[in-house]
Amino acid sequence: MKTQNAKKISVSGKGRLDVPDIPIIPFIEGDGIGIDIWPATQLVLDKAVQSAFDGQRGILWHELLAGEKGYQQTGQWLPDETLESLREHVVAIKGPMTTPVGTGIRSLNVAIRQKLDLYACVRPVRYIDPVPSPMKNPGKINMVVFRENTEDLYAGIEWQAGSQEAGQVIGFLNDKLGTQLCENTGIGIKPISEVNTKRLVARAIQYAIEQNLPSVTLMHKGNIMKYTEGAFARWGYEVAKERFADKTITEQDLYDTHAGGRPAGKIVIKDRIADMLFQQVLLRPGEFSVIATPNLNGDYISDALAAQVGGLGMAPGANIGDQCAVFEATHGTAPKYAGLDKVNPSSLILSGAMMLDHLGWHKAAAAVRTALQKTIRDGIVTYDLARQLEGAKEVKCSEFASAIAGRL
Ligand code: NAD
Fold this sequence. Notes:
The structure is a single chain. This protein has helices at residues 34-52, 67-74, 80-89, 108-115, 164-177, 194-210, 226-244, 251-258, 274-283, 295-308, 346-359, 362-377, 383-386, 397-406; strands spanning 10-11, 17-18, 24-28, 60-63, 91-94, 120-126, 142-148, 158-159, 187-188, 215-220, 248-250, 267-273, 290-293, 316-320, 325-329, 380-381, 393-394. The chain is an alpha/beta fold. The strands form 4 sheets. The chain has an 11-stranded mixed beta sheet with strand order 4-3-5-15-14-6-7-13-10-12-11, sandwiched between helices. Strands 1-2 form a two-stranded antiparallel ribbon. α13 (383-386) links the parallel β16 and β17 (393-394). It binds nicotinamide-adenine-dinucleotide.
Protein backbone atom coordinates (compact mmCIF):
# COMPACT_ATOMS: atom_id res chain seq x y z
CA MET A 1 0.00 0.00 0.00
CA LYS A 2 1.41 3.38 -1.02
CA THR A 3 0.75 5.37 2.14
CA GLN A 4 1.96 8.59 0.48
CA ASN A 5 -1.24 8.40 -1.65
CA ALA A 6 -3.49 8.33 1.41
CA LYS A 7 -6.14 11.04 1.56
CA LYS A 8 -9.01 12.14 3.76
CA ILE A 9 -12.56 11.07 2.95
CA SER A 10 -14.82 14.02 2.08
CA VAL A 11 -18.58 14.60 1.85
CA SER A 12 -20.12 16.06 -1.30
CA GLY A 13 -22.96 18.59 -1.28
CA LYS A 14 -25.60 15.85 -1.46
CA GLY A 15 -24.13 14.04 1.54
CA ARG A 16 -22.36 11.44 -0.65
CA LEU A 17 -18.98 10.14 0.53
CA ASP A 18 -15.98 10.64 -1.68
CA VAL A 19 -13.69 7.75 -0.68
CA PRO A 20 -10.13 7.62 -2.04
CA ASP A 21 -8.43 4.24 -2.65
CA ILE A 22 -6.36 4.77 0.48
CA PRO A 23 -8.47 6.73 2.99
CA ILE A 24 -7.03 7.96 6.29
CA ILE A 25 -9.32 6.54 8.97
CA PRO A 26 -8.93 7.51 12.62
CA PHE A 27 -9.32 4.91 15.36
CA ILE A 28 -9.64 5.20 19.13
CA GLU A 29 -8.22 2.02 20.63
CA GLY A 30 -10.48 2.23 23.67
CA ASP A 31 -9.91 1.38 27.33
CA GLY A 32 -9.82 -2.01 29.06
CA ILE A 33 -10.12 -4.74 26.44
CA GLY A 34 -9.65 -2.14 23.66
CA ILE A 35 -5.99 -3.09 23.79
CA ASP A 36 -6.97 -6.66 22.79
CA ILE A 37 -9.85 -6.18 20.37
CA TRP A 38 -8.51 -3.24 18.36
CA PRO A 39 -5.36 -5.00 17.01
CA ALA A 40 -7.52 -8.06 16.26
CA THR A 41 -9.96 -5.91 14.30
CA GLN A 42 -7.28 -4.02 12.41
CA LEU A 43 -5.68 -7.29 11.29
CA VAL A 44 -8.98 -8.61 9.91
CA LEU A 45 -10.04 -5.37 8.19
CA ASP A 46 -6.64 -4.85 6.53
CA LYS A 47 -6.59 -8.41 5.22
CA ALA A 48 -10.19 -8.17 3.96
CA VAL A 49 -9.56 -4.94 2.04
CA GLN A 50 -6.29 -6.20 0.63
CA SER A 51 -7.78 -9.48 -0.64
CA ALA A 52 -11.06 -7.98 -1.90
CA PHE A 53 -9.29 -5.33 -3.99
CA ASP A 54 -6.03 -7.13 -4.90
CA GLY A 55 -3.95 -4.66 -2.94
CA GLN A 56 -5.33 -1.68 -4.93
CA ARG A 57 -7.08 -0.31 -1.87
CA GLY A 58 -6.05 -0.03 1.75
CA ILE A 59 -6.62 1.99 4.91
CA LEU A 60 -4.10 4.28 6.57
CA TRP A 61 -5.04 4.08 10.26
CA HIS A 62 -4.56 7.19 12.37
CA GLU A 63 -4.71 6.87 16.16
CA LEU A 64 -6.70 9.41 18.18
CA LEU A 65 -6.57 9.72 21.94
CA ALA A 66 -9.62 9.56 24.19
CA GLY A 67 -10.71 7.81 27.37
CA GLU A 68 -8.08 6.73 29.91
CA LYS A 69 -5.26 6.85 27.36
CA GLY A 70 -6.34 10.37 26.39
CA TYR A 71 -6.46 11.43 30.04
CA GLN A 72 -3.03 9.96 30.82
CA GLN A 73 -1.36 11.59 27.81
CA THR A 74 -3.20 14.93 27.53
CA GLY A 75 -5.06 15.46 30.82
CA GLN A 76 -8.36 15.41 28.88
CA TRP A 77 -10.78 12.49 28.62
CA LEU A 78 -12.00 13.70 25.26
CA PRO A 79 -9.35 16.07 23.83
CA ASP A 80 -10.60 18.83 21.53
CA GLU A 81 -8.14 17.69 18.81
CA THR A 82 -9.74 14.25 18.87
CA LEU A 83 -13.22 15.67 18.31
CA GLU A 84 -11.91 17.97 15.57
CA SER A 85 -10.10 15.10 13.86
CA LEU A 86 -13.21 12.85 14.00
CA ARG A 87 -15.16 15.64 12.33
CA GLU A 88 -12.48 16.26 9.70
CA HIS A 89 -11.95 12.62 8.69
CA VAL A 90 -15.71 11.89 8.25
CA VAL A 91 -15.45 8.14 9.12
CA ALA A 92 -13.85 6.62 12.24
CA ILE A 93 -13.93 3.54 14.46
CA LYS A 94 -13.58 3.19 18.22
CA GLY A 95 -13.24 0.62 20.98
CA PRO A 96 -15.13 0.86 24.28
CA MET A 97 -14.33 3.64 26.72
CA THR A 98 -14.52 3.87 30.49
CA THR A 99 -17.14 6.25 31.81
CA PRO A 100 -15.14 8.60 34.06
CA VAL A 101 -16.67 8.80 37.53
CA GLY A 102 -16.95 12.14 39.34
CA THR A 103 -15.63 14.33 36.48
CA GLY A 104 -18.82 16.00 35.32
CA ILE A 105 -18.65 13.99 32.08
CA ARG A 106 -21.83 11.94 31.81
CA SER A 107 -20.35 9.50 29.28
CA LEU A 108 -17.66 9.90 26.63
CA ASN A 109 -19.79 8.01 24.12
CA VAL A 110 -22.78 10.26 24.69
CA ALA A 111 -20.48 13.32 24.46
CA ILE A 112 -19.08 12.18 21.06
CA ARG A 113 -22.60 11.51 19.74
CA GLN A 114 -23.90 14.89 20.87
CA LYS A 115 -20.89 17.03 19.91
CA LEU A 116 -20.65 15.57 16.40
CA ASP A 117 -24.44 15.44 16.01
CA LEU A 118 -24.30 11.70 15.25
CA TYR A 119 -28.06 11.51 15.52
CA ALA A 120 -28.66 7.89 14.49
CA CYS A 121 -27.36 4.95 16.50
CA VAL A 122 -27.59 2.08 14.03
CA ARG A 123 -27.50 -1.46 15.42
CA PRO A 124 -27.99 -4.38 13.00
CA VAL A 125 -29.04 -7.62 14.71
CA ARG A 126 -28.49 -10.69 12.61
CA TYR A 127 -27.99 -14.28 13.67
CA ILE A 128 -24.65 -15.89 12.87
CA ASP A 129 -25.07 -19.64 12.81
CA PRO A 130 -24.05 -21.55 15.06
CA VAL A 131 -23.58 -18.92 17.79
CA PRO A 132 -25.46 -20.12 20.92
CA SER A 133 -28.79 -18.28 21.26
CA PRO A 134 -31.68 -18.53 23.74
CA MET A 135 -34.19 -18.47 20.83
CA LYS A 136 -35.73 -21.58 19.22
CA ASN A 137 -35.36 -20.12 15.72
CA PRO A 138 -32.72 -17.38 15.93
CA GLY A 139 -32.32 -17.45 12.14
CA LYS A 140 -35.61 -15.50 11.92
CA ILE A 141 -34.00 -12.47 13.56
CA ASN A 142 -32.76 -9.95 11.01
CA MET A 143 -33.43 -6.43 12.23
CA VAL A 144 -31.73 -3.05 12.27
CA VAL A 145 -32.48 -0.61 15.09
CA PHE A 146 -32.26 3.13 14.35
CA ARG A 147 -32.14 4.78 17.75
CA GLU A 148 -32.39 8.58 18.03
CA ASN A 149 -29.19 9.70 19.71
CA THR A 150 -29.47 13.36 20.63
CA GLU A 151 -32.56 13.92 22.75
CA ASP A 152 -35.16 12.15 24.95
CA LEU A 153 -34.11 11.49 28.58
CA TYR A 154 -30.51 11.14 27.35
CA ALA A 155 -30.32 14.87 26.65
CA GLY A 156 -29.03 15.14 30.21
CA ILE A 157 -31.51 17.80 31.36
CA GLU A 158 -32.01 16.68 34.94
CA TRP A 159 -31.69 18.02 38.47
CA GLN A 160 -31.08 16.24 41.74
CA ALA A 161 -33.83 16.12 44.36
CA GLY A 162 -33.28 18.93 46.87
CA SER A 163 -31.17 21.06 44.50
CA GLN A 164 -32.00 24.72 43.97
CA GLU A 165 -32.76 24.06 40.28
CA ALA A 166 -35.12 21.17 41.03
CA GLY A 167 -36.85 23.40 43.60
CA GLN A 168 -37.28 26.17 41.01
CA VAL A 169 -38.72 23.79 38.40
CA ILE A 170 -41.06 22.20 40.95
CA GLY A 171 -42.15 25.66 42.12
CA PHE A 172 -42.91 26.73 38.56
CA LEU A 173 -44.83 23.54 37.73
CA ASN A 174 -46.88 23.56 40.93
CA ASP A 175 -47.59 27.32 40.95
CA LYS A 176 -48.15 27.96 37.25
CA LEU A 177 -49.19 24.66 35.72
CA GLY A 178 -51.19 23.06 38.51
CA THR A 179 -49.04 19.98 39.19
CA GLN A 180 -48.68 18.61 42.71
CA LEU A 181 -45.09 17.45 42.88
CA CYS A 182 -43.57 16.71 46.29
CA GLU A 183 -40.77 18.93 47.49
CA ASN A 184 -37.91 16.42 47.45
CA THR A 185 -38.34 15.16 43.88
CA GLY A 186 -35.63 14.58 41.27
CA ILE A 187 -36.50 16.11 37.90
CA GLY A 188 -35.64 14.86 34.39
CA ILE A 189 -36.84 16.44 31.16
CA LYS A 190 -37.79 14.38 28.10
CA PRO A 191 -37.50 16.53 24.98
CA ILE A 192 -38.57 14.96 21.66
CA SER A 193 -38.71 17.32 18.69
CA GLU A 194 -40.25 17.18 15.23
CA VAL A 195 -37.02 18.05 13.45
CA ASN A 196 -34.89 15.42 15.19
CA THR A 197 -37.57 12.74 14.92
CA LYS A 198 -38.07 13.35 11.22
CA ARG A 199 -34.38 13.21 10.30
CA LEU A 200 -33.96 9.94 12.24
CA VAL A 201 -37.03 8.26 10.74
CA ALA A 202 -36.12 9.53 7.25
CA ARG A 203 -32.69 7.90 7.59
CA ALA A 204 -34.31 4.62 8.69
CA ILE A 205 -36.70 4.67 5.70
CA GLN A 206 -33.87 5.57 3.32
CA TYR A 207 -31.91 2.58 4.65
CA ALA A 208 -34.92 0.28 4.14
CA ILE A 209 -35.22 1.53 0.54
CA GLU A 210 -31.51 1.03 -0.21
CA GLN A 211 -31.45 -2.45 1.34
CA ASN A 212 -34.80 -3.47 -0.16
CA LEU A 213 -36.30 -4.28 3.25
CA PRO A 214 -40.03 -4.86 3.85
CA SER A 215 -40.94 -2.58 6.76
CA VAL A 216 -40.06 0.21 9.17
CA THR A 217 -41.63 -0.06 12.64
CA LEU A 218 -41.97 3.07 14.79
CA MET A 219 -41.48 1.87 18.37
CA HIS A 220 -42.92 4.20 21.00
CA LYS A 221 -44.82 4.50 24.28
CA GLY A 222 -47.27 7.06 22.96
CA ASN A 223 -50.28 5.57 24.75
CA ILE A 224 -48.86 7.08 27.96
CA MET A 225 -46.39 9.80 26.86
CA LYS A 226 -48.59 11.33 24.20
CA TYR A 227 -46.69 14.53 23.43
CA THR A 228 -43.21 13.00 23.29
CA GLU A 229 -43.37 9.30 22.30
CA GLY A 230 -46.81 9.69 20.71
CA ALA A 231 -45.53 12.66 18.72
CA PHE A 232 -42.52 10.57 17.62
CA ALA A 233 -44.88 8.08 15.96
CA ARG A 234 -47.03 10.81 14.40
CA TRP A 235 -44.01 12.67 12.99
CA GLY A 236 -42.61 9.36 11.74
CA TYR A 237 -45.75 8.72 9.68
CA GLU A 238 -45.68 12.32 8.49
CA VAL A 239 -42.11 12.18 7.19
CA ALA A 240 -42.87 8.91 5.38
CA LYS A 241 -45.72 10.69 3.59
CA GLU A 242 -43.86 13.93 2.96
CA ARG A 243 -40.61 12.46 1.62
CA PHE A 244 -41.26 8.84 0.61
CA ALA A 245 -44.91 8.72 -0.51
CA ASP A 246 -44.08 6.73 -3.67
CA LYS A 247 -42.03 4.13 -1.75
CA THR A 248 -44.07 3.57 1.42
CA ILE A 249 -47.51 2.41 2.52
CA THR A 250 -48.92 2.48 6.03
CA GLU A 251 -49.97 -0.78 7.67
CA GLN A 252 -53.49 0.66 7.88
CA ASP A 253 -53.60 1.19 4.09
CA LEU A 254 -52.15 -2.23 3.55
CA TYR A 255 -55.19 -3.84 5.20
CA ASP A 256 -57.77 -1.27 4.07
CA THR A 257 -56.88 -1.33 0.37
CA HIS A 258 -54.56 -4.31 -0.32
CA ALA A 259 -56.04 -7.07 1.87
CA GLY A 260 -52.75 -7.27 3.78
CA GLY A 261 -50.59 -8.08 0.71
CA ARG A 262 -47.57 -5.79 0.35
CA PRO A 263 -47.46 -4.12 -3.08
CA ALA A 264 -44.14 -4.66 -4.88
CA GLY A 265 -41.52 -2.04 -4.07
CA LYS A 266 -43.43 -0.57 -1.12
CA ILE A 267 -42.10 -0.44 2.42
CA VAL A 268 -44.74 -0.87 5.13
CA ILE A 269 -44.66 1.83 7.83
CA LYS A 270 -46.17 0.55 11.07
CA ASP A 271 -45.98 1.41 14.75
CA ARG A 272 -45.91 -0.67 17.90
CA ILE A 273 -46.15 0.25 21.57
CA ALA A 274 -42.74 -0.46 23.14
CA ASP A 275 -43.84 -3.11 25.66
CA MET A 276 -45.76 -4.99 23.00
CA LEU A 277 -42.82 -4.89 20.62
CA PHE A 278 -40.62 -6.51 23.27
CA GLN A 279 -43.05 -9.46 23.22
CA GLN A 280 -43.39 -9.57 19.47
CA VAL A 281 -39.66 -9.64 18.69
CA LEU A 282 -39.57 -12.83 20.80
CA LEU A 283 -42.78 -14.42 19.52
CA ARG A 284 -42.87 -13.25 15.88
CA PRO A 285 -39.37 -11.97 15.04
CA GLY A 286 -39.86 -12.55 11.31
CA GLU A 287 -42.39 -9.67 11.18
CA PHE A 288 -39.87 -6.92 11.97
CA SER A 289 -37.09 -5.50 9.88
CA VAL A 290 -36.08 -1.86 10.50
CA ILE A 291 -37.07 -0.37 13.88
CA ALA A 292 -36.95 3.43 14.42
CA THR A 293 -37.29 4.65 17.99
CA PRO A 294 -36.45 7.38 20.52
CA ASN A 295 -33.25 7.16 22.53
CA LEU A 296 -34.25 5.28 25.69
CA ASN A 297 -36.43 2.65 24.00
CA GLY A 298 -33.59 2.16 21.52
CA ASP A 299 -31.11 1.54 24.31
CA TYR A 300 -33.27 -1.23 25.77
CA ILE A 301 -34.42 -2.93 22.56
CA SER A 302 -30.99 -3.03 20.90
CA ASP A 303 -29.37 -4.82 23.84
CA ALA A 304 -32.35 -7.16 24.22
CA LEU A 305 -32.18 -8.06 20.52
CA ALA A 306 -28.40 -8.54 20.76
CA ALA A 307 -29.03 -11.07 23.54
CA GLN A 308 -31.42 -12.95 21.26
CA VAL A 309 -28.64 -13.57 18.74
CA GLY A 310 -25.81 -14.37 21.14
CA GLY A 311 -25.01 -11.32 23.27
CA LEU A 312 -23.24 -8.00 23.11
CA GLY A 313 -19.88 -9.61 22.27
CA MET A 314 -21.31 -10.26 18.79
CA ALA A 315 -23.32 -7.05 18.17
CA PRO A 316 -21.98 -4.31 15.89
CA GLY A 317 -23.02 -0.66 15.93
CA ALA A 318 -22.44 2.81 14.54
CA ASN A 319 -23.34 6.40 15.32
CA ILE A 320 -24.11 8.27 12.14
CA GLY A 321 -24.86 11.91 11.32
CA ASP A 322 -25.09 13.91 8.11
CA GLN A 323 -21.41 14.87 8.24
CA CYS A 324 -19.64 11.98 9.92
CA ALA A 325 -19.94 8.46 11.30
CA VAL A 326 -18.24 6.62 14.15
CA PHE A 327 -18.37 2.81 14.21
CA GLU A 328 -18.00 1.15 17.61
CA ALA A 329 -17.97 -1.97 19.75
CA THR A 330 -21.33 -2.08 21.52
CA HIS A 331 -20.06 -3.65 24.76
CA GLY A 332 -18.04 -1.95 27.50
CA THR A 333 -14.41 -2.16 28.57
CA ALA A 334 -14.69 -5.45 30.54
CA PRO A 335 -11.77 -4.31 32.77
CA LYS A 336 -11.30 -7.70 34.41
CA TYR A 337 -10.17 -9.16 31.05
CA ALA A 338 -8.08 -6.19 29.85
CA GLY A 339 -4.78 -7.20 28.29
CA LEU A 340 -5.40 -10.94 28.76
CA ASP A 341 -5.87 -11.55 25.01
CA LYS A 342 -9.00 -13.49 25.89
CA VAL A 343 -12.22 -11.69 24.93
CA ASN A 344 -14.31 -11.90 21.79
CA PRO A 345 -13.43 -9.19 19.22
CA SER A 346 -16.48 -9.93 17.00
CA SER A 347 -18.47 -6.83 17.95
CA LEU A 348 -15.69 -4.48 16.82
CA ILE A 349 -14.82 -6.62 13.78
CA LEU A 350 -18.47 -6.62 12.64
CA SER A 351 -18.66 -2.85 13.28
CA GLY A 352 -15.63 -2.63 11.00
CA ALA A 353 -17.57 -4.57 8.36
CA MET A 354 -20.40 -2.03 8.71
CA MET A 355 -17.81 0.69 8.20
CA LEU A 356 -16.56 -0.96 5.00
CA ASP A 357 -20.18 -1.06 3.75
CA HIS A 358 -20.50 2.64 4.62
CA LEU A 359 -17.43 3.34 2.43
CA GLY A 360 -19.11 1.43 -0.39
CA TRP A 361 -16.51 -1.38 -0.07
CA HIS A 362 -19.22 -4.05 0.07
CA LYS A 363 -17.04 -6.89 -1.24
CA ALA A 364 -14.62 -6.53 1.67
CA ALA A 365 -17.49 -6.15 4.17
CA ALA A 366 -19.20 -9.33 2.98
CA ALA A 367 -15.88 -11.19 3.06
CA VAL A 368 -15.35 -10.24 6.74
CA ARG A 369 -18.80 -11.57 7.72
CA THR A 370 -18.35 -14.80 5.77
CA ALA A 371 -14.88 -15.46 7.18
CA LEU A 372 -16.05 -14.75 10.76
CA GLN A 373 -18.95 -17.15 10.36
CA LYS A 374 -16.69 -19.83 8.84
CA THR A 375 -14.28 -19.51 11.75
CA ILE A 376 -17.08 -20.03 14.29
CA ARG A 377 -18.52 -22.91 12.23
CA ASP A 378 -15.07 -24.51 12.29
CA GLY A 379 -15.36 -24.45 16.08
CA ILE A 380 -12.62 -21.85 16.60
CA VAL A 381 -13.96 -19.42 19.20
CA THR A 382 -13.05 -17.26 22.21
CA TYR A 383 -13.88 -18.31 25.79
CA ASP A 384 -17.36 -16.77 25.88
CA LEU A 385 -18.60 -18.94 23.02
CA ALA A 386 -16.40 -21.96 23.80
CA ARG A 387 -18.20 -22.58 27.07
CA GLN A 388 -21.52 -22.81 25.21
CA LEU A 389 -20.53 -24.59 21.97
CA GLU A 390 -19.97 -28.30 22.32
CA GLY A 391 -16.72 -29.53 20.77
CA ALA A 392 -15.42 -26.01 20.08
CA LYS A 393 -11.77 -25.10 20.54
CA GLU A 394 -11.11 -22.08 22.77
CA VAL A 395 -8.51 -19.72 21.33
CA LYS A 396 -7.15 -16.32 22.33
CA CYS A 397 -8.57 -13.07 20.96
CA SER A 398 -5.55 -12.63 18.64
CA GLU A 399 -5.72 -16.28 17.48
CA PHE A 400 -9.41 -15.88 16.65
CA ALA A 401 -8.55 -12.83 14.52
CA SER A 402 -5.72 -14.72 12.77
CA ALA A 403 -8.13 -17.59 12.07
CA ILE A 404 -10.59 -15.14 10.44
CA ALA A 405 -7.80 -13.48 8.45
CA GLY A 406 -6.66 -16.93 7.32
CA ARG A 407 -10.14 -17.55 5.85
CA LEU A 408 -10.22 -14.29 3.89
P1 NAD B 1 -19.10 -4.53 29.85
O1 NAD B 1 -19.73 -4.61 28.52
O2 NAD B 1 -17.69 -4.05 29.91
O3 NAD B 1 -19.17 -5.97 30.52
C1 NAD B 1 -20.39 -6.70 30.72
C2 NAD B 1 -20.08 -8.20 30.66
O4 NAD B 1 -19.80 -8.61 29.33
C3 NAD B 1 -18.86 -8.61 31.49
O5 NAD B 1 -19.09 -9.87 32.05
C4 NAD B 1 -17.76 -8.67 30.44
O6 NAD B 1 -16.70 -9.51 30.85
C5 NAD B 1 -18.51 -9.21 29.22
N1 NAD B 1 -17.92 -8.76 27.96
C6 NAD B 1 -17.91 -7.47 27.48
N2 NAD B 1 -17.30 -7.44 26.29
C7 NAD B 1 -16.95 -8.70 25.99
C8 NAD B 1 -16.30 -9.30 24.86
N3 NAD B 1 -15.89 -8.57 23.81
N4 NAD B 1 -16.08 -10.63 24.87
C9 NAD B 1 -16.49 -11.37 25.90
N5 NAD B 1 -17.10 -10.88 27.00
C10 NAD B 1 -17.34 -9.55 27.04
O7 NAD B 1 -20.05 -3.60 30.75
P2 NAD B 1 -19.83 -2.98 32.21
O8 NAD B 1 -19.07 -3.94 33.07
O9 NAD B 1 -21.17 -2.53 32.63
O10 NAD B 1 -18.95 -1.67 31.97
C11 NAD B 1 -17.52 -1.57 32.11
C12 NAD B 1 -17.08 -0.16 31.66
O11 NAD B 1 -17.36 0.02 30.27
C13 NAD B 1 -17.78 1.00 32.38
O12 NAD B 1 -16.84 2.05 32.58
C14 NAD B 1 -18.85 1.43 31.40
O13 NAD B 1 -19.22 2.77 31.58
C15 NAD B 1 -18.11 1.23 30.08
N6 NAD B 1 -19.02 1.04 28.92
C16 NAD B 1 -18.61 1.57 27.75
C17 NAD B 1 -19.36 1.37 26.60
C18 NAD B 1 -18.86 1.96 25.31
O14 NAD B 1 -17.77 2.49 25.27
N7 NAD B 1 -19.62 1.85 24.22
C19 NAD B 1 -20.55 0.62 26.65
C20 NAD B 1 -20.93 0.04 27.87
C21 NAD B 1 -20.14 0.25 29.01
